[in-house]
Structure of receptor protein-tyrosine kinase:
Amino acid sequence: MTTSQRYPTASAFTTQHPKRWRRRRRRSFDHKLYTPMVHYIISHLNILLVLSLPAVLCYRSTSTKKICSGTENGLNKLEVHEKKVERLRMMYANCTVVHGNLEITYLTPDDLKDAGISDLHFLNDIVEVTGYVLIAHNSIKNFSLPSLQIIWGDKKFRPTSDQMVSQFGLLVLNNAFSTFDLSNLRAIHDGSVGIQMNHRMCHWKTIDFRQLLGDNYEKRLIIRDSYGECYTDAVCDSSCLHCWGSEKRQCQKIYRNNCAPQCSSGMCYDVESPQFCCHPECAAGCFGPSDSECYGCSTMRDNGKCVDKCPTPELYDPITTQYVKNPDGKYAFNRDCVTTCPAHMVVYKDGCVSRCPENFTADEGDNVCRPCQGACPKTCIIEQHVNSLNIKDFIGCTKVDGVIEIRKDTFIGGALLQPNGTFIPYDPMTPAQLEALSSVRQVTHYVLVQTEKLKSLNFLRNLQKIEGRKLFDSKYALYITHSFSLQQLGTISLTSVLNGEIYIASNFDLCYIHNIPWNKLIASTHSVAKVRKNREADVCEAEGRTCDMSCDLSQGCWGPGSEMCFECLHWRLGNVCVDDCSTDGEYQASPKQCALCHPECISCTGPGSRNCTKCRHVSLDGECIRNCPQETHFENPATHVCEPCHANCYSYGCTGSGNFVGIGGCNRCKYGVFDEDTQSITRCLRELSAERLCSEFPDLENYYWTVPLSTKIQTEVAHAVCMKCHPACKSCYGYGVDFVHYGCDCLNYTYRETPTSSVCVLQCPKNTFIRPAPDAGRADECIPCDSQCDGCIGPTSTDCVECVTYKDYLSDTDRFNCTNVCPADRPYISADRLCTDINMDEVIYEKYEVNIVENYG
C-alpha cells in the first residue's frame, strides 16, 4: 500500500480527508521499585531498552494507520548496539503518527551507506508528531519528511535547564542539509521554531512562517547563524513564492493569507476566494467549510468531525433524575473521541489515561479507574532480605513481587553482594522501621522470619495472601522459626497460602496460635502446616496470654484483644468481634457479620446509600448523598430532600424551584426575559432562536430577542435574552422606533419625520394633526401642519388653530388663513397680527390731530 493510499496527501484532501490519529503515552520504568541487583541490570541495559522500546510499542489503531512511540533522548549522543538507521527503521517504518517526539540526530553519510540506502524513505509516511521534532547535528546532504502535516508540540524541547531558553516544537540545529523538505507541513501547534547553524538550507529563507505559526509568529520564531552559504537567492517553482525546494511539489501550503474578516479561525481554503472560511474548530487549515473537512482539530475529533469536547459516556436524565448511559458517549483519547480506550490505557472519568491517578486503581481484567478501597495497590519487586537499603521501597506497597525475609542480619547490619562481585554495606534497622510493610496485602513468593528482635508481626497485619510461586527451601511459603522474643503473630488478615507449607517452630515465647485451623489457610491439598516447639498452651494460659472471650476459642487467635480472633463467638464488625449489630451506623450483613452503614447513612438496613433509614445530609430519589447535584437540583431546607430545578434552568443549577434568576430560582438562564424597570431577569424561557421568537410567547409580543450584551446580563443569561421593545412599538426585532431598522410596529401613532422615513410615537408632536388609519389594527398617522400654523386640524394653512405670522380672515366667514404676507386688498397688519384694509397708523394720527385741535384750538 502506498502512502497516498494509506493516508491522503494535502492535494488528495480535496476529495477525502483522514480521521484523526490515536496517540498513546509510553510508560517509563520506575527504577525505585527494583532491588540493587535489578538496578545493576537496568543500568547496563537502560540505553538499549529506551531506544528499542518504541519499536515494540508501535501498534495499529486502524487498518490504515499506525501509531508509534517517539523518543526523548534530546541532544545526547548515545551509543547503541543497533546501527542508527536500522534503529530508526525499526521505530518508524510505516508509521503515520509519532506519539511523542521525533528526534533525528547525529546521522552521517556513512550511516546511510552502511544501511545500503540513499535517504530515510521509511520516514515518508509520518503525518503527525504529538510532541516536538528535533533535527540536529546531521551531516547528510538532504532530508525530508514529505507527508508531515502537523507538529502538535504537546511536549516541547528545551535545550538546557535554563528557564529563559525557548521551548521548541521544532528545532533544526547544525545540519549540513542542502534541502530539508517539509512540503506538506501546515502547522506547528505549540512551541517555538528554532533554525540555527544550518548554512545551506537556502529555500527556507522563502518560507512564510505565519502559515505554520499563525499571527504574531515572530514571537515564536528564532533564526540564528543560518543560510551562511546561500550566496544567491533560492528560486521556487514559478507557481509559488514560498517553498521548501525548487520543485513544484515543494511549494509551501498557503491558507492564512487574505482570509475574510469573518473567518474567525484565521484560515480559509481558497486563497483566491477568501470568504471560504475554515470551521473555527479546525487546526492546520481545511479543504472545505464544515467541521469534518479539517486537516487537524484544535481540540477533539469525533467521528471525523472537529468538536470542542467528546460526548460524555453518561447523561443526566431529568425524568428519572439519574445518570444514564449515553448511547453516543465516547472517551477522550489524546485529540480523538473513541468508544473504547486502547488496551494499554485505563478509563478515568471521561478519558483514556496511561495510569490511574493517585488514590485510584484498576483491577486486573478491568481497565476502569475506581477509588481505592483503603490503600491503593502498589507492586514492589523485592528479591533480597529486608534491610536498611531497601526498606523504603516497601512504603505504600500492597503487593510484593518477590519475598519478605526478616533475618538476624536485618537488625545487626551487613553487606549485599553485587553482580560485579563487590559488596555494599548496610546499617542495622530497628523493629519500628518494619512498619513500612504495613500496607502489603500480597506476596508472590514466601515470607520468612528468623530474628530475636521481634515481639509481634503486627506490621504484616494487612497481609492476606501468600502465593508461594517460589518457596523457601523449595517447600515453605510461611517460615517462622527461632524468633525467641516473638510473643504473638498479629497477622490478622491472613486468609490464604496458595502453594507451599507453613512452618512455625522453635519460637519459645509464642502464644495464642495453638488452636488456629491452619488447614483453612492452605489451599494446596499436598501441603501441611507444621506448628511445633512454641510456648506450651498451658504455660500461656497460666501466664494469662490467651485469646479474648469474644473469640471462638476453638479456632484460636493471632494475639490478645477482640480484633485478633480467627473466628468470632458472636458477630464481627470489620476486624473486631462484637456482641451484636444494634449500634446506630451498623447492620447485619450476613450470619455473624456486622457491617458499617454507608457514610451518608445515620442508620440503615443494608449496604449502600439506598438502604439508609435516615440520611446524614440530603436525599435524592431515595438515595442519601452529600450534596444535591448542583446543575439540576436544590436542597429543600425543611425536608433535606433534593428537588429538581425548573426545567428552564437547564444545567445551570438553582436555589429553588422558581423560573427566574435569583434566590429561590435559577442560578442562570439559558434564555431569559429582561425587565427594564427592575434591571433583572424576571423569567427563564425554554427555547429562543431566530425560529422561535420572543413574540411567539403570548405575553411577550412587544419583546425582541438578542444576545446578552452587558456584563450583568451575561452573568444571568447564557445564550439569548428577550428585551422589551420601545414603548411606542407594538412589536419589533430591535430597540428603536422605525420599522426599517428595528421592525417597530407602531402602538399609537406613526409620524413621518422626513418624506422617506417614518417613526413610531406615543403622542403626536406639536404642529401635527392625527389622520385616522384606513384599516383597523393599524396605527393612526401624525401629519405635520402647514409651516404657517401654530397647531392645526388639517394640512393646509386654513386648518391652523393659530398662526405663526399673520392671520387673514376669509370674507364673510369665521375661517382664516395663516400667511407670512398679507394680501394686496388687506395690506395692513393690526396690533393682534390680523391682515386688514385699514391703515391703523393713519387712523391713530388723525385722532391725534383732532385731540390737539380740540384741546388748544
